[in-house]
Amino acid sequence: QAQLVESGGGLVQAGTSLTLECLDSGRDMTYAMGWFRQAPGKEREFVASINLSGGSTYYADSVKGRLLISRDNVKNTMYLQMNSLKPEDTAVYYCAASRDPFKNIFDIQAGRLDYWGQGTQVTVSS
Length: 126
Hints:
Layout: E1 4-7, E2 10-13, E3 18-24, E4 33-38, E5 45-50, E6 57-59, E7 67-72, E8 77-82, E9 91-97, H1 105-109, E10 115-116, E11 120-125
Parallel strand pairs: 2-11
Antiparallel strand pairs: 1-3, 3-8, 4-5, 4-9, 5-6, 7-8, 9-10, 9-11
């Protein structure tokens, strides 16, 4: 079973940067991974995803050009570098992972993943 733990959230001012980390400490092999977020009163939404090698990434239109997803498979860690943060980025950020090596991007973006972390709060003040 995979166990995902997010860290790096906090309270920051608009325009600054923050990097989230997601440690996969489980025994199961995981493949594609992604970041999602849920703002108060809103549904969870897809933020970014990355395949096993790190060579293929996808981003929500709202974060393109500001957020960068990456992973270090030696450290079993995925990252989300968040730049030029905006108040509308305020949310609980979740990482997720798939145990299916053939999970397609549509399923990933829909949140149909196998393992989820508990989330880390990011609050951006104006």
